[in-house]
Amino acid sequence: MGAVLYYGCVSFINKLIGKNMSNQSFAHEFIGAPVSYSFSKREESVLNLFFTNTNKKIFFIRPALPASVTGALISMYSRIKNPRGIRGHFVDNLLPLILLSFHSLFEAMSSSTVR
User: Fold this and answer.
1) What is the pTM for the complete model shown?
2) Is residue 26 domain-shared with residue 60, that is, in the same domain?
3) For residue 46, what are the contacts with CB-CB under 8 A and spacing of at least 6?
4) Measuring CA to CA, how many Å separate 87 from each of 28, 34, 60, 97?
């Protein structure tokens, strides 16, 4: 059922964009195409800790993120309005919260050891 739906969609898209290519070459073209946005060097260095790449359409979330953060990202995926996608949303919205929680934790630890 899923394969039939996929091939039907690819066939429709090929007709829509005027290309007559096999399903496999269409998939390779999509996967290999670069994204239209970029990240700063600092953002890339942080993203590479949590995602397999920053410049391709297909990527994986590394298991370095807590399951709750990964779940939140996946659940928000269809509603994200960030032009840089889920990775941009992570950098812009979730990473500052994660860093702030570590900062609060370190502050609490340092104040308890000073006494």
Assistant:
1) 0.63
2) no
3) 91, 95
4) 22, 14, 10, 15
User: Which residues 6+ apart lie within 8 Å of 49 measured at CB?
Assistant: 62, 64
Structure tokens at 26: 């269409």
Q: 24-48 b/e with 16+ CB inside 10 Å = b? A: eebeeeeeeeebeeebeeebbebbe
**Pair 86, 77: CB distance under 8 Å:** yes
Q: For residue range 90-115, list pLDDT tens digits in order.
A: 999 888 888 888 777 777 777 766 55
Does residue 83 share a domain with residue 49? yes
In one letter, which amino acid is 51? F
